[in-house]
Design a protein that fits this description.
The chain has a five-stranded antiparallel β-sheet, with helices on one face. It is built from three helices and five strands; from the N terminus they run E-E-E-H-E-H-E-H. The protein has one domain. A hairpin with an 8-residue loop joins strand 2 and strand 3. By secondary structure, the chain is an alpha+beta fold.
Amino acid sequence: MANLSGAYDPNAEASQDFAPIPTGDYLAQIVDSDMKPTRNNDGHYLELVHEIIDGPLAKRKLWHNINLDNPNADAVRIGNEQFASVREATGVPNPIDSHELHYRPVVIRVEFQPADPPDWKPAATGRKKRRDRDQSVIKSWKKPEGASASGNAAAASSAPAAIAASPSDSTPPWKRNRAA
């Protein structure tokens, strides 16, 4: 047994929901970043941690990796395009350190991607790997409406609340009728 007296915060809130974030646009900010080696140690990627800062999903976090150094030229091209979008959205055109991108409001486009069925085949999707769980993926970044080039929070606070709000229908996007 372990004595827990004084070892924890009795007022701490319970952990947040880990359900996937529905498809939509959300007002967010980068709260952490790190350059990490690729799995094969033959390149590096920039890991960005985004936190939603408005609406019912405030404080939820999403991670996104950007390949900046990789033997695969397509991965580097896509990574540079994504990083250009991040730099433009944050108003930091030429960062020296990734911390310069932190705490600058941006609008992220999140896409919900459901898990693949058990009978999934690579040829049907063009992907090489089966998606074994539901996930939410950041697809794009842009400046909030009304944000200045400096990307400061005061300017972004005038962004419409609808950006970060869930759709008016409380039904998750993956359960809605797509025929509409």
